[in-house]
Amino acid sequence: MNAGLSTIRVVVMLSGSGSTLQNFIDLSESGRLPIHITKVISSRGDAYGLQRAQNHNIPTVVVSRKKFNDWADYNQALTDAVNEEQPDLVLFAGFMSLFWPGESYSGRIMNVHPALIPAFCGKGMYGHHIHEAVIETGAKITGCTVHFVDGQYDTGPIILQRAIEVYDDDTPDTLAERVQEVERQIYPEAVNLFVQNRLQIENKRVKVLSL
Asked: Catalytic positions, please?
């Protein structure tokens, strides 16, 4: 599937366990995803994702939100850490802080959200908060969304979405597990489309170009 594609430089940003990072590492090392992860940036020093990166000899850096009183200063520190790598693409992998390095990165930062945007999204809607809200509202369908980041919470152009059914006996844990399974499929799909130069943003819509 990736024959003939150039490998792109990627920075991964996370705040937690790093399961999404591990998926990218596994796909990269098996040759199924043409990316080279040059750095992992974490907003927390205790994030297990840092250990996952170190297990694969990927450089890491911690830019702790707690050390900055002002968001602008924090955002600049993150921007400096990203710019050091001159990445082709930045991937959020459970990164819990707002980050926007400027228009030069427009269409070059991706995130996966565990719901079907514009439902169950925005500030404070992350992780189990989302799955709890889905169940509490009685929604019959949920899923996940891969989108470009635009400097706000969950408002960037949508690349891919996939829906799953919400079962009557679902708990936030069981729902999260099934959503994460789909995330592991469509997030790499979106990255592959980026590598193939098949994503074209027109206004707020992302068109997937044919090969």
From this structure: 113
